[in-house]
């Protein structure tokens, strides 16, 4: 008997870190109303982190293996890049993804539920319908990740909210160096948070960063410690209680790069600054950072630098070669945002 579908395509956007039974429930509900389901896997292409531990390809495999074959053949899974601090670019990317898979006459609907602020995008596409579904048994991927990385014997990890194939995949992944690094980060973060457990209110951290550019190159450090050990980052750190924001950014710049310029020279070349306050930008907790852009392109020679303090390495790197999967947290997007403000940005890739 022919099934009558309300929509030609349903669109399901999420990070699926990892894909669980709640996600599978949404897929089943969507496919009861649509001929096909397009799953856009968000935060694809980012460096591994506690919030995004698995690559697009790994999540694609987990999703395909978790769904019954008769449903999986009606599912299209595509990567979706982040465009932090640029909703317009993100919305355009989603629209372009869907246009490549659908026809203008197709009936399209977004599928989801009002779980939390991460579903804000449901209001960004008024031209599409909306399939409201619930959150099966109130399952959250964040809780699953925490249990997974806290597990003393992850090679035998199991949880009722994930499929047998996903459990097997996670058990195998726990044998990799990637898992060992992520688990080390998890324990470092737990130790950090334990220092603030007795405060009578949630702690909000203030950090400062410096973006220093010279004729198409950016000054970056490679992080010495967890979280983000081995990843590129902007020189920066926590603001001291007795300093202004700009002075804190300069102090961190001098400490981590030992740049051979004085404060006056840098301040004369301050081009821009901005605040970055995405509540989920850091695994350390609520962290608001202020970043200052110094452009040294008018200098006759590129300043010398040397890694120090929390920086394992310090490099001048061509801006056009920077990739999002090389960076700690949102630092890649901070660079793109500030460069766009000063009209020197290369296209974001």
TrEMBL record:
Annotated Nudix hydrolase domain residues: 195-338
Pfam families listed in its UniProt record: CTP_transf_like, NUDIX
SUPFAM superfamilies listed in its UniProt record: Nucleotidylyl transferase, Nudix
Alphabetic keyword roster: Nucleotidyltransferase, Transferase
An MF annotation (GO) of this entry: nucleotidyltransferase activity
Source species, domain of life: Bacteria
Matches recorded under Gene3D superfamilies: HUPs, Nucleoside Triphosphate Pyrophosphohydrolase
PROSITE patterns reported for this sequence: NUDIX (PS51462)
PANTHER family: BIFUNCTIONAL NMN ADENYLYLTRANSFERASE_NUDIX HYDROLASE (PTHR21342:SF0), PHOSPHOPANTETHEINE ADENYLYLTRANSFERASE (PTHR21342)
Protein name, per record: NUDIX domain-containing protein
Organism: Ostreibacterium oceani
């Amino acid at each position: 008997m022919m099934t009558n579908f309300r929509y030609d395509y349903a669109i399901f956007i999420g990070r699926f870190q990892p894909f669980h039974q709640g996600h599978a429930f949404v897929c089943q509900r969507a496919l009861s109303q649509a001929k096909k389901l397009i799953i856009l896997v968000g935060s694809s292409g980012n460096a591994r982190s506690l919030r995004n531990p698995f690559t697009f390809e790994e999540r694609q495999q987990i999703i395909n293996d978790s769904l019954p074959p008769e449903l999986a053949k009606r599912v299209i899974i595509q990567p979706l890049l982040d465009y932090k601090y640029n909703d317009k670019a993100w919305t355009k990317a989603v629209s372009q993804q869907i246009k490549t898979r659908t026809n203008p006459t197709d009936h399209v609907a977004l599928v989801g539920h009002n779980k939390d602020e991460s579903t804000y995008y449901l209001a960004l596409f008024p031209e599409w319908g909306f399939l409201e579904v619930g959150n099966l048994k109130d399952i959250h991927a964040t809780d699953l990740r925490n249990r997974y990385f806290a597990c003393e014997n992850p090679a035998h990890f199991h949880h009722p909210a994930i499929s047998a194939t996903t459990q097997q995949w996670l058990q195998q992944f726990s044998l990799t160096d990637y898992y060992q690094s992520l688990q080390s980060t998890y324990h470092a973060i737990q130790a950090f948070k334990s220092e603030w457990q007795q405060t009578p209110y949630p702690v909000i951290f203030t950090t400062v960063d410096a973006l220093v550019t010279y004729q198409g190159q950016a000054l970056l450090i490679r992080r010495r410690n967890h979280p983000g050990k081995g990843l590129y980052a902007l020189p920066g750190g926590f603001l001291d209680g007795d300093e202004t924001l700009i002075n804190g950014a300069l102090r961190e710049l001098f400490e981590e790069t030992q740049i051979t310029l004085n404060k006056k020279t840098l301040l004369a070349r301050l081009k821009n600054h901005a605040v970055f306050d995405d509540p989920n930008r850091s695994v350390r907790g609520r962290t608001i950072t202020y970043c200052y852009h110094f452009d040294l392109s008018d200098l006759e020679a590129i300043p010398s630098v040397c890694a120090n303090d929390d920086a394992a390495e310090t490099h001048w790197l061509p801006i056009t070669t920077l990739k999002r999967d090389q960076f700690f947290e949102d630092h890649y997007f901070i660079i793109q945002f500030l460069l766009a403000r000063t009209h020197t940005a290369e296209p974001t890739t």
